[in-house]
Amino acid sequence: MYEVDFDLQISNLREEAYLSVESVGRVQVSRIVLLDGVRQLLINRLMRDRLHLDVDINHMSLCNIGPGNSDFVPNPDLYQSLQDVVLRQYRGDQWQGYYYVTPIFVPDLPWDIVLGSNHFHRLGVEWNSEIKHQFLYWLVFDSFGRYEKRAKRKLKCMNDQKDGEYYAIIIGTGFSGLGSAIKLNKLGIDNYIVIERYGHVGGTWYANKYPGCACDVPSNLYSFSFEPNPKWSHYFSRQPEIAEYLEYCTDKYNIRRHIHFNTNVTQLKWIEEQKLWQVTIQSNNQEKQLFARIIIAATGPLSSASYPTDIPGIDKFEGQMCHTSEWDKTIDFKNKRVAVIGTGASAIQVVPEIQQMNVSQLFVFQRTPPWIIPRVDRRVSNFEKRLLTYFPIIQKLIRRSLYWSREALILSFAYRWPIRYVNEELVRSNLNREIKDIELRKKVIPTWDFGCKRVLISSDWYSTLQKSNVKLITNRIKQIKSHSIITYDGDEYPVDIIIWS
């Protein structure tokens, strides 16, 4: 362990860089000094495990600089977050004969000495006075994606680690889990696994297969920024298409080899002595313990069924029952009395579909009415698909416009801008135009301000509630019997099927 003060070592390194520039007058020498300082000082200070950098980066061999071979020991005086992050300090970027190194190690050194005033934008480094303690996030999860193709980042974990020990374990294969895995691949980190409880990737987009399941975010926005899809069939994508997109990304970025399917994580435990996470997994009724430096919990809240705990008698119901996230495709709704409990995002999609299945009666139990705006959806023409394929810049512009328009709407909620009240009046006028029945209208008007809860989108919710075989019930459920639902006002509704949504 190094006993010399960290700041003093940085100061000495900075002074040495200045002297090199003054004596030789070449910026190249300054960079060599910094690279050598990185190798000798910072790798050993910030890396805990044995890690090495590929030595095929040109400037390492030219400058006779290679990765350190000594044991990597953590400095307890540094922040834990700094100890637990893999250091990526060599970029291997060559341009006009110059080799660059991130100037984070010498925060007071002038830019024109470290990089040259004309080269800063080519590296894409964030800069501030505290960057010495903040640069690691940028190093590992570099947001400057446009530089990734040019930078030869070859960081990877050594293969002499213990069996069952990984740099990272990702839990879940939805957008967050796959996105994290793809990012690790791009950084050159291969020593990780992904735990998935289902037999397919997709997370909530694999679990939720109820009729009408779709995304309420426009397709061009609800996708990875680095993997746009110019062939979405609708403005708002349906569940099968989103699941197919995630399968495609999994194979394109070679993530499937890292995934352990049909596996559950049963316990996470931090081992302070080893500075590792102990992960207990279960597969085929067998438990196994793994270890990782980093846990990425990408489980998400929407792929697991959530049943109310304040309604007695659920286990006594003798009819058919299922949750939208655990849809039972064998249920026959024809001529059945159906109850849908809930009026959230999945309910406003599944209720119109069930109503069209020739049910004899559809009861919709509502606790809190949501604000609903029309869903302006349409099919994407083949011409549009070809246009986005051959001119990807158009899709990028569409994505950015969608993003900022929605950000402006969210800001209006948070800061109570006048546009929020304008939007609320527009939604009210749409409600009044759609629903003619005064009593029904009273039931669906929210009592909370527009934007205080999730705003839902649908163009057939209000019309469905007015169908002759649909009844909206706003009284709270008191209990469930073998073949009926009883509300607190004493009414009893006979049902054959219950859908939790």
UniProtKB/TrEMBL annotation:
Reply yes or no: does the keyword Oxidoreductase apply.
yes
Record key words, sorted: FAD, Flavoprotein, Oxidoreductase
A single Gene Ontology MF term assigned here is:
NADP binding
Instruction: Identify the InterPro entries for this entry.
Output: FAD-bind_Monooxygenase_sf, FAD/NAD-bd_sf, Flavin_mOase-like
- Which Pfam family, just one, is annotated for this protein? FMO-like
Give a yes or no for keyword DNA-binding in this entry. no
- Of which family is this protein a member? Belongs to the FAD-binding monooxygenase family.
Q: Protein name, please?
A: Flavin-containing monooxygenase
Source organism per entry reads: Rotaria sordida
